[in-house]
Amino acid sequence: MTQESQTPHKRRVRYKGKYPRKFEEKYKELQPEKYQDTVQHVIQKGNTPAGMHISIMVNEILDFLQIQPGQTGFDATLGYGGHTKAMLKCLKGQGHIYATDVDHEEAAKTKKRLEEQGFGEDLLTIRLQNFCTIDQIAKDAGGFDFILADLGVSSMQIDNPKRGFSFKTDGPLDLRLNQEAGISAAQRLDTITKEELAGMLEENADEPYCEEIAKAITDEVRKGNHIDTTFKLRQVIEKTLSFIPEKDRKETVKKTCQRTFQALRIDVNNEFEVLYEFMEKLPGALKPGGRAAILTFHSGEDKLVKRALKEGYKAGIYEDYSRDVVRPSAKECAGNPRAHSTKMRWAVKR
Ligand SMILES: C[S@@+](CC[C@H](N)C(=O)[O-])C[C@H]1O[C@@H](n2cnc3c(N)ncnc32)[C@H](O)[C@@H]1O
Which residues hold S-adenosyl-L-methionine (predicted)? Predict the structure, then answer.
């Protein structure tokens, strides 16, 4: 017997995979400044590191806004602060940016991160306000030379199971951008009628199975089964669509889950109402020659923005506006799948 075969066989430690599986365990990605290599590796693979948001169309936005030192700007949707930081850099230490977000939790982290990178209160004012209060902020600032709105939700919000934005992880069915105000999606489903829910799914997300899904949800709630987690909602959708031929079922369930979550998110956050108000107040917040860029992520938002800019142009409020949408490059979409649905529109105040 050789020496080698006498050595007792040692069981190899089970391979756990490259990345930690639970959100809380993604400690390296959640501290991006400390673990730059891990973060770069995740980004190169076309993924967004946990706790981070990759800003979309940064170059196109900066090219259009033409930010000069000494100017005053407004970032309506602070998020991770990627766009804010890129715009702050253009100011070269002279000028000011006001930014809003309704997400207290993420805004506090972003404020700290930007302060540590040298963008303190002398250059940046963050307000925990809805961007539809743009008129008040413009009054305090004396009008804006440039404005950016990057609508929707951040990757941090989608990836955090406690927020309930994703049907891919289980968590409370919340879907509020500001968890300190309003009611959660679960509470909304507790009292909504079948007709109203079907209308919401159709209007907010063009859901083709809106009638079937609305009936199934309201039936469950009537039986006393509260749909208060993301997985419970997903299960109701899966059961409702079980009549779909097996070869198409998986994809249809996925799409219907995406649309249902989108419709509920728009509803609990009054997204169309606040965007409408923002677009109405936008011209009044811009200085003459001021520039505004808006990124949207679904057709309902884009239609609203398009109409407001077109009407503003026809009324002589805007000197110019985007006739066509500007889309991210194929390269950007390949590196960041969340960029696929992005549409940018812009206008210049007369
Ligand atoms: C797509 S993210 C913005 C990402 C950001 N541009 C960046 O580069 O990191 C959208 C952000 O806007 C915020 N938001 C959405 N609707 C809002 C509203 N009506 N008022 C203020 N903030 C809003 C969300 O909470 C989220 O943090």
Answer: 81-83, 101, 131, 150, 157
